Amino acid sequence: MSSYCDYAIGDPLHGPYHDREYGFPINDEAVLFERLIFEINQAGLSWALILRKQDGFRAAYHGFDVDTVAAYDEADVARLLADERIVRNRLKVNAGIHNARVIQAMRESHGGFAGWIANHHPKRKPDWVKLFKKTFKFTGGEITGEFLMSIGYLPGAHRDDCPVQAEIAKHDPPWRSAPAGFWTG
C-alpha cells in the first residue's frame, strides 16, 4: 500500500506540506480551524487542489479567524459561493460557518478547540468519528481521520522510515502519549 510519503517527498506542491505540516502537533485555534476547513473541502476532491487553493481559502475566510467566520451571514455565503479561489459548495461553506460557531462555544466549555480535542484524547478513530459527527457538520470518517492525523492525534501520517516522522517525534505528538498497545488493541 502506498503512502503519502511515497509521492510527497520532493514534490513541489505536496512536499512542503508533507515536510513541515502534516502530522505536526497544532494548538493554534485558527490553524486548527483552517485544517478542518481544508479537510472538509477536500472531500470528493484531490488534496492537490486544496494545496493549490490554500491562499485563496485564507483570504476568503479572513485568515480563518473563528469569530469572523462565525459571524458570516447570507451575504458572506453568497460571496464565498462566487469566489473562484476556493471550493464553491454550499454544504461545505455552511458547514464551515456552523463549525466556527461550535468552536466558539468550545472556548467556554474547554478553553477552545485545542482544549476540546485534548480533553477527548486518547480515542481510536471510530470513537473520534462518532464524536466529530455528533459535534460538527460535514465530518465523516475520512475527514475526521485525516484531520486528526494531520494534527498529531492519530498515528499514520508518515511511514516509520520517513525522515519527517523522526522530526515529528521531537514535537511529541499526542498520539504517542497513548498507553502501550492502545493503537493495536
UniProtKB/TrEMBL annotation:
Pfam families membership:
Adenine_glyco
The answer to keyword Nucleus applying to this record is no
This protein's record includes keyword Metal-binding: yes
GO MF term set? DNA-3-methyladenine glycosylase activity; metal ion binding
Q: Which domain of life is it from?
A: Bacteria
Q: Cite the entry's keywords alphabetically.
A: Metal-binding, Zinc
Quick one: which residues bind Zn(2+)?
C5, H18
* Database matches in SUPFAM superfamilies: DNA-glycosylase
Give GO terms for biological process: base-excision repair
What is the protein named? Answer: DNA-3-methyladenine glycosylase I
